[in-house]
Amino acid sequence: MKITVVGTGYVGLVTGACLAEMGNHVLCLDVDPRKIDMLNAGGIPIHEPGLEEVVQRNAEAKRLEFTTDVDRAVAHGTLQFIAVGTPPDEDGSADLQYVVAAARAIGERMTDYKVVIDKSTVPVGTADKVRAARAPRRSRGAASRSSTRWSATPSS
Question: pTM of the entire structure?
């Protein structure tokens, strides 16, 4: 199965590597070109025991790739995992701007069926915000060409 993981931090990179290890073709997207360059060169920006070997093995097998190209990433995966940061907002709540931005980017670019999975650590109700961020695409007539299922899955 073709899977896209948006975000290559702890949650995204580990998720992408594990999904590739299961035999899926995973494309990990990040907006930070330095991080993508490091990953493409075989480096790992986080510490997780055993992760470097899993990433290397799956990158060599072409099951795990890294990119900054949003268009390519959205086109790639039927499953679109959002695994971006949710830093604390001024009031201590989760800042969802990156989750919403990822959902909007997916919605603006999708041309076929996608399942969007929110793997970021988010509060209850975030799936509604993700759906709303993607909604403008649907209002332009995309509903007849595409469909999206939404899920807010808290990550640990």
Answer: 0.83
